[in-house]
Design goal:
mainly alpha
């Protein structure tokens, strides 16, 4: 059995990322900024719901697991389409499937991670686009009327991209240390949370 050792260079390079991930907690706890600050409010929105955090992380995990050569394609597509969904939500155009799309994103992405399933590129893009539209609509529809649409959208799109990057980083760590079990386990937990929301 091959002995796993921690590479000190790798640990040093991951330290700034770990510190960055810890920043949002104190940052949003003591800013004193309310809904009038569009950028901060938008940035905080995806981080305030477990459904969004898990789904965004799952996109990064799945992109790194199933599509090594185009790992950045899905996060970029997701953020772009999510911006369109956010605009639909901001102008209150009714999109009835948005809440169902969020739950489905957890069930489907979690299931794909659990079984390590690869899909054709076209099917993957359609899935990612549908889920992004749903999440974007949810963010946009909950935007307070008193803040800037552009800064709010920039905030939630940046937070989403950082969550995607976190998922990609976790996937790469699992691959580096031959711990694909944890990716499967994470997929099962994500899908179970989606199932829980489905029963509510």
């Amino acid at each position: 059995m091959k002995k796993l050792t921690l590479n000190p260079k790798l640990l040093r390079s991951l330290l700034p990322v770990a510190l960055l991930l810890l920043l949002p907690l104190p940052l949003f706890a003591h800013t004193g900024d309310g809904p009038h600050n569009g950028w901060l409010h938008g940035f905080a929105h995806p981080l305030s719901g477990l459904d969004h955090v898990l789904a965004m992380t799952a996109v990064g995990l799945w992109a790194a697991q199933a599509h090594d050569r185009i790992v950045w394609l899905f996060p970029l597509i997701f953020v772009a389409v999510m911006g369109v969904g956010g605009l639909l939500g901001m102008i209150t155009l009714p999109v009835a499937f948005a809440e169902h799309g969020i739950v489905l994103s957890l069930l489907v992405l979690g299931g794909l991670l659990a079984v390590r399933q690869r899909l054709p590129l076209s099917a993957s893009v359609l899935l990612i686009g549908f889920f992004a539209l749903s999440h974007g609509y949810a963010h946009g529809s909950e935007m307070p009327a008193s803040i800037s649409m552009a800064s709010y959208a920039a905030g939630f799109m940046l937070a989403t991209m950082l969550l995607h990057l976190g998922g990609i980083g976790l996937a790469l760590l699992c691959k580096r240390f031959a711990a694909t079990f944890w990716m499967r386990f994470g997929g099962i937990m994500i899908a179970c949370y989606g199932g829980f929301l489905l029963t509510q």
